[in-house]
Structure formats: structure tokens, C-alpha cells
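Render this sequence as a predicted structure.
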Amino acid sequence: LKFFSQLGELIEETLSVVDFRNMADASVSLINAGDTAWVLTSSAFVLLMTPGLAFFYGGLVKEQNVLNTMMMSLISMGVVSITWMLLGFSFAFGDGGGKIIGDFQYFAMNGMLTMEGGVWPDTGLPPLVFAVFQMTFAVIGCAIISG
């Protein structure tokens, strides 16, 4: 319960810092609605590949192993999603000093709502939409390895 109370306090702090009215007014012209809709649609399609892959792998094994094989693919959706939102996105897209791996700049999606202009750099996408799109490929990549 302590974790949830701390999480609630963190969310309240984040929401109190972000002035959504000003952010919405400033970023209306920067967010490309067509690109955002297409990326969200693409994200849904890529995410649907994971259950499809689970059924494919389930059909390749003996009857006694079907459930285990399918669950490995489906559980990757939850595990990788949480890991991606906490650490993976930051390691992949943080501005870290190294050339291969990022830093903790976006740990737990820190700063994604307060990004300048309300869009991910060099795109017309909200930062969280960009993060979810990238996450879907991390999920299907892990599910492919599980087979």
C-alpha cells in the first residue's frame, strides 16, 4: 500500500507541475493529427501480432505444451510493456553520454508530458504516442524470441 500511496503522490506532483491548458494551446499547431492517428493504428496492429504469434507457436508444439508456449508470448506483453515504460525507453532514446546506450533522462516516462511544444523532436507526434509505438516492437521482439 505504501507503493501505491507514493505512486499517487508522484502523479499528483506531475499533474500539478503541468499546466495542460497552456500546453494544449501551444501545441495544437505542432501535433499532426493524421500522423498521430496512423501511428496509433500501426501500434495497435503491431501489438495484435503478439497474440497471433502466440497462436502460431502454439500450433507448432505438442498438445501438452500449447498453453505454456502461448503464455510465454502473451506474458511478454505485460513484462516488456512495464520494463519499456520504466527503463527501456530511457535507455533507447535518452541523451546519455555514451554512444550506445542512453541515460535515465526518461526513467518512468519522466518529462514526457512537459516536453517543449508537446511533441517528440522531429515528429508531429505526442511523446507518449512515440513511446508506445516503439514499445510495440520491443514486445513483439521479445515474443519472437520466446518461440
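Summary. The mean pLDDT is 84. The chain has five helices and no strands.
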